[in-house]
């Protein structure tokens, strides 16, 4: 299957066909999810209406982690199989993941101010998300840090692999260090700890966010592939 | 093993020829430590609990600052090409670089630490845990630095880029290191063991990653 997708134009044909259904799914789930979340779902008995920020906050946090796993897998595919699309995909994912990490931090700060009384507290989850954001920035800087763009692909892929191993350790060490944030309430043994009136919009916004992520990555991959093709076409023989 | 030690010997010799750099690194370490009281104020009740963290941050910055262009000279004069062809191999070469770098940067820093601990008013019974944790932590930081230097080799703005890559990944070493240094349960604390585990992982990881990154760098310079 890897070989099948190794041809960029074949991959792009399939991706383009997926694009429209993804957009439709994302828009529909996004609108319904946000409507249910912002207007229909009850306010929290302790947190009041501020809890509604969860419908942006949690999907962003998931996508920040999703993108990080994606980067690691792309790194693996690039280093082991030299898959030509893995590099493109990683470069496409990194800025999107970084923005979602930033969005998580910003919405978290907006949520933290009324709830904890501070924009920022040095809590484990906040800190590890901040470090994940820095990790994304490091990846982007390294991938684009060389005079010839392709030269950065391999170091960046290696960095993604190192991050794959090291970031969980960072997470663990920071957890050990300090924890104030509430524990996971969605994916845990014994079922979700959220009432269905809040869970339904959350799941819908999660679907919307993931499809939105996929759309952004496909669009960015398309742009990067075109850019690279253009660079090859305009390359004069003997020049550079 | 003979080429491995020959590589270490060569790097130590070069370091000895440029021994002024060593002094610069140590002064850098001392100045960072001196800056903290200047910024915080001379109030002992505020300053005393900060002694260990200040030493750790200064050590982290001083060690990582020393990685500026660790491989640059070897890439430029063709030494790295010779290594890639030789029986030593790039992985062992990276490990040799780490050893010699630790001997010329980490070890002097460690020797300097008791003096700094005295200046920061750290009680005497805290010195053994601090020194043991710093010993392992400095070795771990050195290995991280080798990874960063290998990845950023040949990049524009290599030094700043390296700091951006490495500092987030240095968080576990910093957390476990400072906790182990402030342990009141003797030298062998759970945090020291975790610090040792991170170090062991980096010891396995660093030569592989550095070798893989330098391989591409080495082929690219020929283009």
Question: What do these coordinates show?
Answer:
The complex is a heterodimer of chains A (240) and B (223). Chain A contains seven helices and no strands. Chain A is mainly alpha-helical and 240 residues long. Chain A has one domain. Chain A is globular. Chain B is mainly alpha-helical and 223 residues long. Chain B has one domain. Chains A and B meet through α5 and α6 of A and α8, α9, α10 and α11 of B.
Provide a short characterization of the protein structure.
The complex is a heterodimer of chains A (240) and B (223). Chain A has 240 residues and is mostly helical.
Helix and strand arrangement:
The complex is a heterodimer of chains A (240) and B (223).
Chain A lengths: L1 H4 L2 H33 L13 H28 L2 H33 L7 H20 L9 H25 L18 H39 L6
Chain B lengths: L1 H16 L1 H22 L3 H4 L3 H15 L6 H5 L2 H7 L3 H31 L7 H26 L5 H12 L1 H11 L8 H31 L3
Give a quick set of tags describing it.
heterodimer, A: 240 residues, mainly alpha, 7 helices, B: 223 residues, 81% helix, 0% strand, globular
Shape of chain A: globular
Rg calculated over all Cα atoms of chain B: 18 Å
Structural class label of chain B: mainly alpha
Number of DSSP strand runs of chain B? 0
List low-confidence stretches of chain B: none
Number of domains of chain A: 1
Work out the strand percent of chain A: under 5%
Q: Quaternary state, please?
A: heterodimer
Strand fraction of chain B equals under 5%
Mean pLDDT of chain B, nearest integer?
86
Proportion of residues in helical segments of chain B: over 70%
Q: Determine the number of helices of chain A (DSSP H or I, runs of at least 4 residues).
A: 7
As residue ranges, the low-confidence spans of chain A are none
Distance between the termini of chain A: 35 Å
Largest sheet of chain B: none
Largest beta sheet of chain A, briefly?
none
Structural class of chain A: mainly alpha
Greatest interface and its participating residue counts: A-B, 30 and 29 residues
Helix proportion of chain A = over 70%
End-to-end distance of chain B, in Å? 32 Å
């Amino acid at each position: 299957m890897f070989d099948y997708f190794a041809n960029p134009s074949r991959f792009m044909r399939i991706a383009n066909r997926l694009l429209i259904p993804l957009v439709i799914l994302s828009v529909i789930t996004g609108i319904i999810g946000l409507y249910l979340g912002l207007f229909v779902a009850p306010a929290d008995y302790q947190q009041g209406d501020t809890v509604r920020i969860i419908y942006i906050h949690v999907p962003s946090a998931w996508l920040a982690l999703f993108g990080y796993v994606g980067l690691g897998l792309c790194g693996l595919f690039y280093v082991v199989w030299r898959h030509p699309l893995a590099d493109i995909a990683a470069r496409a994912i990194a800025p999107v993941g970084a923005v979602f990490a930033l969005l998580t931090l910003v919405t978290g700060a907006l949520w933290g101010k009324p709830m904890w009384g501070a924009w920022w507290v040095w809590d484990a989850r906040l800190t590890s998300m901040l470090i994940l954001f820095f990790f994304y920035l490091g990846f982007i800087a390294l991938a684009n840090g060389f005079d010839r763009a392709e030269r950065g692909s391999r170091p960046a892929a290696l960095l993604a692999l190192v991050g794959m191993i090291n970031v969980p350790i960072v997470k663990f060490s920071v957890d050990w260090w300090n924890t104030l944030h509430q524990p996971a309430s969605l994916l845990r043994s014994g079922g979700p700890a959220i009432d269905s009136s809040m869970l339904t919009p959350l799941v819908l916004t999660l679907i919307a966010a993931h499809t939105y992520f996929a759309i952004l990555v496909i669009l960015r991959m398309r742009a990067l592939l075109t850019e690279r093709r253009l660079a090859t076409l305009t390359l004069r023989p003997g020049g550079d | 093993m003979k080429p491995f030690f020959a590589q270490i010997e060569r790097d130590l010799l070069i370091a000895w020829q440029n021994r002024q750099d060593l002094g610069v690194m140590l002064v850098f370490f001392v100045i960072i430590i001196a800056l903290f009281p200047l910024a915080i104020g001379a109030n002992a009740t505020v300053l005393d609990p900060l002694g260990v963290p200040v030493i750790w941050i200064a050590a982290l910055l001083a060690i990582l600052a020393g990685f500026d262009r660790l491989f640059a000279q070897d890439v430029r004069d063709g030494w790295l090409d010779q290594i890639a062809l030789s029986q030593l191999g790039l992985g062992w070469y990276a490990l040799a670089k780490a050893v010699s770098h630790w001997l010329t940067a980490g070890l002097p820093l460690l020797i300097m630490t008791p003096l700094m601990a005295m200046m920061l008013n750290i009680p005497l019974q805290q010195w053994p845990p601090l020194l043991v944790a710093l010993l392992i932590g400095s070795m771990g930081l050195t290995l991280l630095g080798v990874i960063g230097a290998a990845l950023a080799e040949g990049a524009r703005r290599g030094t700043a880029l390296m700091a951006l890559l490495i500092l987030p990944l240095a968080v576990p070493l910093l957390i476990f290191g400072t906790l182990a240094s402030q342990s009141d349960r003797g030298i062998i604390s759970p945090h020291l063991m975790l610090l040792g585990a991170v170090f062991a992982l980096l010891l396995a990881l660093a030569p592989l990653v550095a070798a893989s990154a330098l391989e591409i760098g080495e082929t690219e310079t020929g283009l």
